[in-house]
Structure formats: C-alpha cells, structure tokens
Structures
1.
Amino acid sequence: MNASDFLLNLNRVLGISPIDKKGILRWLHSLWCLGLLLYIWTNSIRRCVEFKGEIPTIEKILYLLEFPGNMSVIGFLAFHAVLHLPSLQEVELEIHRMIKRLDSKAVQMIYKKHDQRTLQLMVISIIFHGLCAVVDIITCKFEFWTTWISNSIYNLPGLMMSLGLLQYALPLHFLWLLLDEIRRALEELKWQQRPPGGITKLDARYESAFAVLVDAGGGYSVRLEEMRSTCHHLDLLHKKLLSRFGTFLILNFANSLASFCVELYLVFNFFENPQLEESVLLIYRLLWLLMHGGRIWFIMAVNEQILEKKCQLFRLINELEVCSSHLERTINRFLLQLQTSLAQPLEACGIVPLDTLALGGFFGVLMAIVIFLIQIGLGNKSLMGVALNKSNWLYI
C-alpha cells in the first residue's frame, strides 16, 4: 500500500472521504460519517454552552468562534463524503489520464515524487496533532474523561481539517509535477536548438546549422502546441479543484484567522504576567498558533508554486529560437495563454486571492484585531483600578 492509498483509507475512517463501494457498505460508511460529525458537533455545542470564563464579551465571542468554525469545516467534508459527489474523482481521473500519456520513465518519476510528498505531509500532520494530544493530556492533568472530551473538540477536528486540506493540496501537487515535466521538455527543446559547439553567428557554418533548425521547426511547433494544450487543460483542472474546495478554503481562512488572533492575544497576556504553572498551556497555545498560521500559509503556498512554475515556462519559451513564421505563431499563442493565466490570479470564491502576497492583508487584519483586544483588556484593567480606589475611599 502506497502513501496515497493509506491517506485515503485514513480519511475514510475519519469520515471526510467517500468510499468507492456501493450498496450496504456505502450506507454504513455514510452512517459512520454522520455519527462522527454528530459526536463532534454535540461536544462542541456543549463546550460553548458550559463555557464560564470571566473575560470581555468580544474576547469570549472570538474565542468561541473556533467551535462553530470547526463544525462548519467538518460538516463540509462530511457532506461531500456522504453524498459521494463525482466532481473530485473526475478531476483526479483526468489528471491520471494526462500522466499516463507520458513516457514510462516520466510516469514513474511523477508517481514516486508524489508518493514521497504525500507521505511527508501525512506524517507531519499526524505527528503534529499527536504532539498536541500529548500536551492536552498533560494540561488536563491526566484526567481521562476531561482529556477525552478536550481532544474530541480540539485535536480530532484539527486532524480531520488538516487531512481534509491535503485533499486539495495533493491534486495540486500532481498539476505542479505535470508543469515541471513541461518545463523539462522545454529545456530539452531549447538545448536541441543550440548550434553545434564552437559555431557562432559570425561563423560561415552558422547558416547551414540554422537551415537545419528551420527544417526541424515543424516538429518543434507540434511539440509546443501539445505543451500549450496540456497547460490549458491543467488550468481548467485547477479551476475545477478551486470551485470544488472554494467554500472549504474560505471557511478555513476565517476559522484560522479568528483562532490565531485569540491565541496570539492570550500568549501576549501570558508574557505580561507570566506564571510557571501555565507554561504547559503556553506550549499548547504556541502549537495552536503554528497550526492555524501554517494552514493559511500552506493554502497560499501550494497555489503560488504553480504560478512560479508558469513563470518559468514563460521565461523558457521566450528563450526559444524563432526559425519560422509558423513556429513564431505557435510561440506567441503559448505566451499569450500563459500571460492571460498569470494575469488572472485564482481566488477562493472570488474573495481571497491564493497568493502569498495576500499574507500582508491577513497580517494587517490580524494586528488590528489583536490590538483591539489588547485595548479592551487595558481598558478593563483601568476600570477595575478606578473601582478599587473608589471602594477603598468609601471604606475609609
């Protein structure tokens, strides 16, 4: 069993991926998905109702937003797992068909790299959430029932969302590998266009070498046209993936941003008045900051890698030798297609641009919310100080 199959089976156990079987097995899996979803929703709602922290209302709302955020993201994944919508399967099958058209060596290399990437991301996710579970157990002082409930409303949904995010990122990695194969083919084509060693444009033999290049121009045009068609098909598949996961990405962005703000504010409060007995809780909060910040960065980074690969293709095409009018038209069509693709950055539901340049906007919103919470905290402390002074004065 390779890493992709293991990840798929793990997602099915967690109720966030559909099962290929039909009949009674699909019904049983659907009941399992709904039961697991209902279990997480019940514990999360009970946590919101029973929360009795004495904190300002706005801080309490932001803190409790994580629970409906988790519920909505898990509900989205379970919904698609139960309905078994064919859209994602169709995209993956089309990607595999495109890979199979390559030569056997390239096919083996692509699947090997993809399997390594899948294993790497899966192991990182499992180890990270395992570490969070251990810290949670220590924080709850090894009380079994308290630890069980805490992990059910924090780490179990966290693991499900992290692995659900891989359902979007791993098909994109296939697209990146296919674009990288096109880049390699372009470099090979560029190398073939080089004149024999030692011949320059001032050399008498250059004209004969260029004539040979002109004769080969028709073959180059066919290869470039195939590459252009493949790039266009990859763009369409990328858009299909984004339309399938757009809502999921928006929910992840909103949930991670709200949770990151609250956790950063609570870390600030700890360092304002550090207490040794809360050091384990500080580690837990730092891990949570790493998880939510990592999700926002990861979503944008996997899309930016594809944009960077297209920029490399653009550069390589510009460096090709134009030796015929037909080849020139083919190159211009390819460049125009890439330029159009790069000029229209992908966005999640038309709201959030999927580019790391947008992290500046997230950082600005983050700092605004954190500063707002700090101001509220300072204002409450000032009011408490005034109240204490008044009570002492009245007592005297």
2.
Amino acid sequence: MLAEDIIVCAVKDFEYFFIKSYNYKVKVKLHDNNSSLHASIKGFEHNSFIRFSSDLCSMEITSNEDFIFILNIVCHELAHYVNHHNYIKKDDKTNRILEAWADRCGVKILLCILRKGFYISNLYKKNNYDTSLDGLTKLIGKVFFKLAGNVFNISSKYYYERLIRVMHCVAGANSFFDDVFDDRDLDRAYVVMHNIYMKSGLRNIISEEMRSIEPDLVELQQIRELHFNLQEGRNSITPGLKPFYEKFIGTSYLPTNNAATLAKISIAYDYALQSMKPSRFGLAKSFFGDDKY
C-alpha cells in the first residue's frame, strides 16, 4: 500500500459526506512537484486545489503509524480546503491562526473519515490495525510526536510553536470524542490526553518546552471572526454537508462553538502543565463498533 492509496480513499470518503445533489468535489493534483512542500493547498478562491508531491504519493505504508500519519497530512489540507482558507489574503498572524485551526479541524476530519468513511475504514481494518479506542488514542500520540519532530519543528513567523500546534491537534481529538458521545466528559478527556501526551515521546517535549510557551488567546479569539466572514451570509462556508456530519466537521461558525474550542485548548494546556492523573474511564471498546460510539 502506498500513501497515494490513502489520499485517494480519503478524498472519496470526504466527498461522500456531502449531499449528492451538491456534487461536491475536492480538486486534487497527485505527483505535483511544483513546491518544496510534500503537501499544500494552492491557487486562490475557486481555483484552489490540494497538491501532493511524488515523494509523498510514493511513500510505502508499512505500519498503522504510517497510515495515520499520511491520513493526518491529507485531512489537514482538507481542513484548509473546506474552510476556504485560500479565499483570503493572509498576513503572518492570520496564517498562524489558520494553520493551527487546520491542525485542529484536520484531526476531526481524520477521525470522522476513519470512523465513517467506507474506503478508509476498510483499508485500515484490512491491514489488521488496532481498532480499539485505547489503542487508537495511543497511536495518535505517536503520530503527533512524529509531526512535532518532522513537520511542526520549524521556526517560522507563519506557524505557532510545535507544542501549541500539537495541543490544537489534541483539542480536535477531544472535540470529536465529545461530539460522538454527546457530552463533555472531563474524565474521558484526561484519559485521551494521558494516552496522547504520556504514552508517546511528547512527554519529553512537554517537560522541555512547556514553560517557555503560552498560547496567544487574543489571536485564537479571531478564529470565529475570520471564518464567520468567510461564510458571507451563508449557513456555512461550504454548504451541502449531510446533517449527520455537521456536528463533527461542519463549517458553520457561532460564538458558542468558538468558546467551547478555546476552553478545550485551555484544558489541554492545563493538563500538560500540571501532568494531571487520569481517572479509570475505560477506552476498551472498538472505535469502529456499531453501538452509540
């Protein structure tokens, strides 16, 4: 299996999340080497498209960690695409905000595709990868650690520090689980964060870097304003999403949604800072089960 297989399957699944009459399509260019980046969104407004380099497309997938790593990259770009991030001209601050938001939304899209996407879930299960919630959250932690070392580990005015970007990813994971369970269970959130932060190499990054960073909540509060303006009076930025998927990956921005997100980022920050101990909340059931979850 190659990364290209994951890219194609993820895009097909994402398009299926939209009502058929809307004929929603994601413009993708595979083996596009017109950039130093392995994956990015290019163009402007209706001419926007997602490109993936030949090196990335040709990457051989040899583990579940490789699988989720590539899927995360794809879903990060899908988050940019569906939220019309290439419909506005960006200064340094705006770019930082939108990249962090794509980190957060990208994880929600990843989990939604992995849970409900026909092609990706079958591809994942076909390879006998761990399908338990406990195993998946620990796996996500390893992937976030890999992202921190290979993708987020750059010093640039266009991006937040790598640990802040990781915290946005964790906030996205917890937000997805909250939406699935229809609650805001702090016990579960702490277990998820413990699996992600403490069962991976992220623990070392936290101990070394946490005291030197602080999320800019003033900038983060501009998330809703930026996206609300992109709605241009519509019910959502990208209409046509099937109602079932709205609460997971919808593009309608209300003040209450933004407040909940900021609160969850704060929870992740406090947890990492204080190394809080999780309760005995269980994550043993299958991520792909047919029950409520």
3.
Amino acid sequence: MLRLSIISCLSFLSLLLFSFSCADHVVPTNPVPAQIKTLDAFRSIGQTGAEVSNFGVQFENLGNIPITEYGVIFVHGSLVATPTMNNSVKLIIASPADLNQKFRGGPGLLFAPVEPVIMFSYRAYAMLSNGSVVFGEVKSVSFAQE
C-alpha cells in the first residue's frame, strides 16, 4: 500500500512539473516591422576582371514580423527617380537576414561602355510575411565609364 502511495505521489508530481515546464508561444499583439538601411554603392573588380556595381543593405532592427525576402532595388539612368517595387530592378540577397552588412553585385549590373556615365537611384527593401514592404532611404550614385 505504501508503495502505491509513493508511485501515485511521484506520478502526480511529474505531471505537475510537466504542466509548468511547457509554455505556449505568445503571438505578438503589437507587430514591429524590420528597419533596414541602404548602404553606399561602390564599384569593384569582378572575377572576370570587369568592373561590377555593388549595392548593400544592413538591418538596424529585425522586428517581430518574419522577413521573406530582402535586397536592393534600383532604377538605372536616373539620379532623381524613387525606386519602387514596380519600376525597379530587384537584387535579392539570398543569405538569412541578420544585423550584418550584406552586399549584392554581379555581371548583370555591367552596362554598355558606350554610356559615358552610369546613374542609379537605389534603396534597400525587405518584404515581410504580412505582405508589407519596408524600405531604406533613397540614394543616388553615378559611375564614369573609363
């Protein structure tokens, strides 16, 4: 009889312990979007020896709404246009979002050498799981062709 009481007591204490060890995940009631910063563009020499335009982003805050995609959008040929998701070339950065600086460039950003000056308006963007998009500040740059 004493043995049954000890087993019952231990079973009860185990269940009590398990019930307090599991916590439900709390869904944030106040969604906070990510904050993203547009970094300065620069030119570099690519693996083929050609010049490549590089664009960068950095998250200042990841927020609590999942980030589904991020990168840079740019408009070629204008220093005054505001890049939007509809009028721009999108450069997606494939690595996971974190607070480190990320850059994207490539051969697709090389333009015909007949243009004496290459002009861009660009900005960072992040698409969130709730369908909204957050943007960094608009920046402009021009590169002279050599």
4.
Amino acid sequence: MLDIHYIVNQSEKSISFNSVDDFVMQQNREVPTLQDFVIVSSVTLDGTELPEFSGKRLDTVYNYFSQNNN
C-alpha cells in the first residue's frame, strides 16, 4: 500500500494506492489522479514512512517510483 499526503490550498489531503505500480499507472494516464505540482507532506510505503519526499513536488515521487520499480 502506498499512502501519499499532500497539500492543496493550505489543506492536507491524502490518497492511497494498492501498490507502487498502481500509482505509476494512474499518473501515466492522460488525466493523472494527482497533478505533478502538488507538494507532498508524507509518503508511506507498506507502513514505512519515506521522509526523503516530505516537502517535494509529486513529480519527484513519481520519477523515483517509475525509475526504481522493476
């Protein structure tokens, strides 16, 4: 499970994906689930927080998982 918390209009929102593959697939759509420019407040993968993404744009998260998910 991949959980992403992000900031929109000074409000924190969250979304969950069944897997990293699901996240990458949904972001590859013509109209992605989330816009690339949203700011991420936290990312949790299978219960483990990934602090390196805090404060980054969503495109950083996407690029990491799309390149490192084999």
